[in-house]
Inverse folding.
């Protein structure tokens, strides 16, 4: 994930916490973020110690 996508995610969800808690389907609502990338983001978050 690059800085442009990170910025779009923060703009869409309003906070880092909301991005971390977002479901795969919610992530796909972000422009230029497809199902595959949403799945990879969710997998990366679930494997981390964010929460």
């Amino acid at each position: 994930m690059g800085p442009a996508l990170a910025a779009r995610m923060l703009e869409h969800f309003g906070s880092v916490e909301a991005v971390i808690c977002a479901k795969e389907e919610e992530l796909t609502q972000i422009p230029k973020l497809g199902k595959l990338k949403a799945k990879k983001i969710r997998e990366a978050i679930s494997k981390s110690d964010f929460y």
Notes: The chain has one domain: 3-46. The first helix runs from residue 3 to 13.
